[in-house]
Amino acid sequence: MNQEHNAATFFNSFAETFDTIYDQKRNPFMRWIDGKFRSDMFLRYTLTFEKLEPMAGRTVLDVGCGSGPYIVEAFRRGAERVTGLDPAPNMLTLVRQRLAQAGVAENRCTLMEGLFPGTPVEPHDYAIVTG
Q: Domain 3-129: what homologous superfamily?
């Protein structure tokens, strides 16, 4: 088994738990753990959107989009279209749920199951590649 397959399998099985990190859905102790040992995730999130302004009317590619917190934030900041790419189908299911909860029209977001590089994608104004 190659590394890409292992990562996809891990994140596919870990999708629900991973999704709780960004939305602070965890119990107080786990939120403390996240703040102490995963603070880089939150810093990276903040810095990404500071550096990509302005987003209004732009297209965004989110490589390794996970459960979609960056996708929804890009729409919140005015992105016209966003493409999310992730090898874990369960993550993409969570993105769809997150988009529906945020009231984002599904036709503004393209979700693709696959790896990058390796999955052909159209050019975008911005690309988010974190993690």
A: Vaccinia Virus protein VP39 (3.40.50.150)
